[in-house]
Design a protein that fits this description.
The protein is an alpha/beta fold. It is built from six helices and eight strands. It is elongated.
């Protein structure tokens, strides 16, 4: 038995269809990118290259305002314009489809200012935590540094946990995040604090 493979013509046709789809990704988007957006010129270029039409002011033709200003929408209360974060652009490109706007609305969000770092979290759970954090306005990073506000872990000791604890960074169980989102407010870290122990003597702990 020999597996049938698509001929070169079919492969080229599929590639051409994908290319056309990406070129027209933002075909119905008339956008304005304000000065608060990092890498503003790149965001503008990415939208234009994929069919978006740039507007130079927020007028009646604009469908999307790309901004990081969480108070921007309040200045235009009677418009049907979508005020969205630049992440909507980049993640829509990555997904090859316009993502729902709801998760990217430029407004004060629960985890704004929260920077989460995982320790001893498996890949599947890490991806889920990343999605939860970023959708609600926080930042998720695997490297522990001075910008981190919370380390999520179930481990009582890792190098990362020890470093965070010594620098006053909250070390909490992952349930703190899920429960905070369910409650609609940041819950007390003390109620979810990991009891940090001494390093194991026999085995080398890792982050």
């Amino acid at each position: 038995y020999r597996e049938e493979r698509p001929c070169g013509r079919q492969t080229r046709a599929a590639a051409a269809a994908d290319s056309y789809k990406m070129a027209a990704l933002f075909h119905d988007v008339r956008f304005f990118v304000d000065a608060t957006v990092p890498n503003r010129s790149k965001v503008i270029g990415a939208l234009k290259q994929r069919g978006g039409l740039r507007q130079f002011s927020i007028d009646s033709l604009v469908t999307h305002v790309i901004t990081t200003d969480t108070d921007k929408a309040a200045e235009y209360p009677h418009t049907n314009v979508a005020f969205v974060l630049p992440g909507w652009v980049w993640l829509s490109i990555k997904a090859a489809a316009q993502l729902p706007l709801k998760a990217f609305v430029a407004q004060q969000r629960l985890l704004q200012g929260v920077v989460v770092c995982p320790s001893e979290i498996n890949d599947a759970d890490r991806r889920q935590l990343w999605a939860m954090v970023t959708v609600h306005g926080g930042r998720f990073q695997v490297t522990l540094n001075s910008t981190c506000t919370h380390v999520l872990t179930n481990a009582s000791w890792t190098k990362k946990v020890a470093a965070a604890h010594s620098h006053g960074i909250a070390v909490v169980h992952p349930h703190w995040l899920a429960d905070s989102l369910e409650a609609g407010r940041l819950l007390r870290e003390e109620d979810y604090a990991v009891q940090v122990s001494q390093p194991p003597a026999a085995t080398a702990a890792t982050a």
